[in-house]
Write a structure and sequence with these properties.
alpha+beta, Arc Repressor Mutant, subunit A, 2 domains, six-stranded antiparallel β-sheet, transcription, Crp/Fnr family transcriptional regulator, WH-like_DNA-bd_sf, transcription regulation, DNA binding
Length: 222
């Protein structure tokens, strides 16, 4: 895939014409990264915007004992970068980001992107939407870590990220949600008994989406 084709494949740039795509490509690069590559580290200052064209990445932090604290997954066709200040020409990373599945990443010089597009009122809506989406991810993270019980944590992941739930090992899911493996098994069995999910050959199938939503939304609304 060429750089221009990679940029065109991103929904973020779908409204741009060929001339504008050519303009972005003049200050952008396309990179291929293999699994487990660290894209950037927490508190790192970056001069480029990162977009995930293909593959899978994750955002995480490390505690004082170097234990990984999972934050969220970053899927293809989305912006990777974290935006905290629109007044500067550099970006400050809130977390570590690593590649989970072989990935293609477009990097765009942030200062030039602002000058050529944002400062001219182009792509402002897309940029705002990307920032809002990341904010919603962080709100979900706060609920997951500080408000939700184990049943709510599992229910939310099953509702919002079933494909990833079935892709991961149960032990990894337990670590990610900060619950015990035995607790995860009990929650899944409870949801199955209540006919909210079914488990077929080790994979979860959702039978009642509304019931799953009600479990964690009720707690969030309290």
């Amino acid at each position: 895939m060429s750089l221009k084709d990679a940029i065109k494949s991103l929904d973020f740039f779908s409204r741009l014409d060929d001339e504008q795509i050519h303009d972005i490509a003049s200050f952008a690069t396309l990179h291929h990264y293999e699994k487990e590559y660290i894209l950037y580290y927490e508190q790192e200052e970056l001069s480029e915007l990162y977009f995930l064209v293909d593959g899978l990445a994750k955002s995480y932090k490390l505690d004082k004992h170097d234990n990984e604290i999972f934050l969220y997954y970053i899927y293809k066709n989305s912006m990777i970068s974290e935006i905290s200040d629109l007044q500067t020409d550099t970006l400050f990373s809130f977390s570590n980001v690593s590649i989970i599945e072989d990935a293609q990443v477009v990097k765009i010089k942030y200062k030039k992107f602002k000058e050529h597009f944002l400062d001219k009122g182009v792509l402002c809506r897309e940029f705002t939407n990307a920032v809002v989406e990341r904010s919603l991810q962080m709100q979900s993270l706060i609920s997951r870590e500080f408000i939700f019980d184990a049943v709510s944590k599992v229910s939310m992941m099953l509702r919002e990220d079933l494909e990833m739930f079935n892709k991961l090992k149960r032990h990894d899911i337990s670590l990610m949600l900060h619950i015990q493996p035995a607790t995860l098994s009990r929650v899944l069995n409870r949801l199955k008994r209540n006919n909210i999910i079914d488990i077929i050959h080790g994979e979860v199938a959702v039978l009642d989406t509304k019931a799953l939503e009600e479990i964690y939304k009720d707690i969030n609304d309290e």
